[in-house]
Give the backbone structure.
Amino acid sequence: MLKNNLQGLWKYRVPFLGIFSIATALVLAFAWTGGFLGTGVTTKEFLGDSLDHFPPGYRRAHGKGMCFSGTFHASGAAVPLSTSRIFLPANIPAVGRFSIGTVDPHAADNSTATVSMALMLVGDDKSQWRMKLNNEPYFATRDAEGFLAQVEAFEPVAGTGQPAPDKVAAFFQKYPEARKSVEREANATWPASFAGTEYNSINAFVLIAADGKRQPVRWSMRPRAAVEMLSKEAHAQASHDFLFDEITQRVGVAPLYWDLVFQLAEAGDPVNDPSQPWPSNRKEVIAGTLEVNQVVEQTHGACRDINFDPTLVPSGIALSDDPVLAARAGIYSQSYNARLREIGFGKATDAVGKKEIK
Amino acid sequence: MHTQQKHTGVQSFNFAARLLHWFMAVLILAMLFIGVGMMSSLSLRPWLIDLHRPLGIAILLLAILRLGNRLLSATPPLPASVPYWQAMAAHVSHLLLYLLMLCLPLLGWATLSAGNWPVTMFVGWNLPPIAPVSSALYAWFRAAHGLFAWVLFLLVLGHLCAALIHAWIYRDGVFSSITRKARGK
């Protein structure tokens, strides 16, 4: 019996080998596409082991934040540029989040110079516009891989506590555009308040008008409140939660306002390179004003379980071919799925306001 | 399903079944690759996810058509030379394939609904949500969608291997019953 089977196998060795090869090729192709094989950079690399090892329920980046709610008052000025109903002169609800750039959700507010605003606007046609804006005016590198390269190059060396000069030099060789961002950060003043900060889309998008005309844009949320900065000394001495304490206190007294300002690209402006700001004399259009009139802890706020994926735009707005924009979509999705799994499966504790069971 | 099948002497699947089988084979295989690719790719996610949603709904609609055709038409019997365990494996895997063709798109739709994501078919045209907005539901639907997709991939792989064994080794007419109309009868 066994002998017969073996003889059968040998007789059909060619078709068996063919079938085995086809199946193996399919498995390998699938594994490569999913990023389980090969050396290509995938979305997961940006999150490292934080997908599996992180305070459960928190965002894997910008973990510390507070939710806000308010109203977006569209001026109507963007209507000629985009068919999105969000730009029609009306008041629509806004949900958002203030956060700091540190990964650790329990970090001190002076641990970073990066502060962010995330925002979701919902039009009367239920169309959604999600965005995530930073106080930095532009991205350090022309692509997302550059971000990983920068983190690696500036890794402090054991002993000196400083980055290895040859690694830094090699990084600037490959990403010369990052010099201006690194220099700006070295001389940057520190935000004293979420209120007096301008937040920038960084990536380019395309507004689509009723006649089909496509206008590449970037935008900023420009504060009506005076811009406030801290000196290095004052920043070093600031209290652990000074930014969040300040915004809570301030919104408790009166609403805060930001203008949504579109910067219109002209022919030749780099649309696919977030490291290149456009000239400051480009035409601006104020599409409306965001009014923030409530801030709440993110443990119970509406922003907690929202993925402010900047690639979710309403019809009338399209994505540009900026590679960092596409990369953000996949990276945010990994973080979102990881933390919603923890929240949904009941593993999150302080992230959802539950006391940790010891 | 096994006992309810009408054979009535046919030797091949009808034209609609054959057409749907091969068309959906391409769609489903593409869909599996799009699915894993859109989670890993740094550059293609927006493009892939815009394909993933309408393609998933297309598969759902085609699967309903296909199920209807399968239930209403005669299907060729497996040859008597096929051992009992192989026949059982074939029937169970076919049943699971039908289940997953219907479940995966519905789970994907429900996942987006529970996460308050618009279920966009093409720019400006969305399907209504089929589940309430809930993070717990999102987590379960999303996990099931991912897990079932892996199961579907393994089933497709097994189905392909079995089909090729019939085609190249057994040469018992099982493979040709889905590739062409049986001659003679």
